[in-house]
Amino acid sequence: MTENINYYLDITGEVCPMTFVRTKLLVERMVSGELVEIRLKGKEPLGNVPRSVAELGHEIVSMVAEDGEGPEGIHQLIIRKK
User: Fold this and answer.
1) Mean pLDDT of the residues in the chain
2) CA–CA separation, 38 vs 4, rounded Å?
3) What number is the average pLDDT over the span 44-57?
4) Nearest alpha-carbon partner for 14 in 4, 26, 5
5) What is the pTM of this model?
6) Candidate list 16, 30, 60, 63, residue with the active-site label
């Protein structure tokens, strides 16, 4: 990715619904077009956070597992605020 990340958020130690709450609060403070990289893990956060963010109209730029992580391991989610 050639664009600069404006914010970072690590919610790997959080559980639902706090994973989405923390994400939403940060995205609300961002300016349109800015990017945030979020580290998350676990079945519920990996499903709920991207889906909920997209439902709010923001762009999911990418979501990839970190090296050596399985399907429910730590992932990096990049979001662009609408």
Assistant:
1) 95
2) 14
3) 96
4) 26
5) 0.92
6) 16
Yes or no: say if 75 and 66 are a contact pair by the CB < 8 Å rule.
yes
16 is catalytic: yes
Give the CB-side neighbour count of residue 59, counting CA atoms within 13 A.
9
Distance, CA of 52 to CA of 66 (rounded, Å): 22
Q: What angle do CA 68, 21, 52 make, to 5 degrees?
A: 75
Q: Quick one: tokens of 44?
A: 């519920």
Residue 36: φ, ψ to 5°: -130, 140
Q: Mean pLDDT, to the nearest integer, of 36-64? A: 97
Statement: residue 19 has pLDDT above 60: yes
Q: What is the DSSP letter of 4?
A: P
Q: What is the pLDDT of residue 3?
A: 80
State phi, psi for 68 to the nearest 5 degrees: 80, 0
